[in-house]
């Protein structure tokens, strides 16, 4: 059996596959054409968010039985195309939940206290104490859109910071939200109430550009928007306008419509915008968790036909 790894994963995962007698090839940063060549004769493919598993790639994969996503989001995998060819798709949804939730809270605090801007200012030799007047999060309302695994940990952490949490999620059971101490409401209700809006849905046709001009207009003046879920859930052009006009006080993004994002992205020119390069899951702990989980799942499927998602 042979497994191809096309995005970086922790060594612990590679070792699990090799210890099971599975041949592992690591080929990172391949072009789509190189990927089409590399996939031939391969039984398992391990990816993160960079590799796109398209219908075209699936057509070229003559022996492929399983695609394993070392992480959560599957928006970079054409699942219907995999289904059509009998290729099983697995992810590791729990492994980076804490990391993504902690990163969200870090962004909320950093944007509230201008930490990135103040760091940059001091590194220019300045001491601009007055310029960086922040706001407390305690007593403010956090509106969470999508209160699944990550959204619910964000809610708990925010409650620990004395924030009130309201949420919109059409698929969650109201009693679960109630047990978390979170008030579930419709989307307009959340937009009208929240001082901070944090989105935690997957990227799907339904959530593509979910946060757009219409929604920004419905938010409180001076609201702060955070996205550590997926680029494309927020319309970046509309976000730029809302930040520039002052409708929104600030925004913090970890994920972008186009990744890697370059200075061509106008958001990066705004003083009231902070960002990180898709670091939500980039902790030692999360990377070990997802690498080990995906390797075990792929090993067990290829050797024993066992299907599971950790
Ligand atoms: P999850 O499936 O546990 O939760 C997602 C929630 O969104 C669900 O409760 C679902 O009902 C809700 N939802 C779906 N469509 C919705 C809609 N239209 N409106 C409101 N709610 C909706 O997933 P999760 O583990 O919490 O992860 C969420 C997303 O976070 C992933 O799909 C992934 O794209 C992203 N993620 C990003 C990073 C990162 O590095 N920045 C790390 C991990 C996950
Ligand atoms: C995920 O969906 O798990 C994230 O995008 C994390 C990642 O792989 O970087």
Q: Describe it for me?
A:
The chain is α/β, with parallel strands linked by helices and 310 residues long. Helix 3 (55-60) links the parallel strand 3 and strand 4 (66-69). The strands form two sheets. It has a seven-stranded parallel β-sheet with strand order 8-7-6-9-10-11-12, with helices on both faces. It is globular and about 60 Å long. It has helices at residues 11-19, 32-38, 55-60, 79-84, 97-112, 115-123, 149-160, 174-180, 187-193, 213-218, 236-245, 284-304, and strands spanning 2-5, 23-26, 44-47, 66-69, 88-91, 141-145, 164-168, 183-184, 196-199, 223-227, 248-253, 273-275. The structure holds nicotinamide-adenine-dinucleotide and D-malate. D-malate (MLT) is lined by residues 48-49, 71-73, 96, 278, 280-281. Residues 72-73, 93, 96-97, 100, 145-151, 168-172, 200-203, 206-207, 228-230, 254-255, 278, 280-281 line the site of nicotinamide-adenine-dinucleotide.
Largest sheet: 7 strands, parallel
Q: Compute the gyration radius: what is it?
A: 21 Å
**Largest sheet strand order:** 8-7-6-9-10-11-12
What are the secondary-structure elements, in order, as H or E? EHEHEHEHEHHEHEHEHEHEHEEH
Helix content: 25-40%
Which class of secondary structure composition applies to the elements? alpha/beta
- General shape: globular
What small molecules are bound in this structure?
nicotinamide-adenine-dinucleotide, D-malate
Mean pLDDT, to the nearest integer, reads 97
Taking pLDDT < 50 over at least 5 consecutive residues as the criterion, the unreliable ranges are none
Query: Roughly how many Å apart are the termini?
Result: 22 Å
DSSP summary: helix tally: 12
What percent strand?
15-25%
What is the strand tally? 12
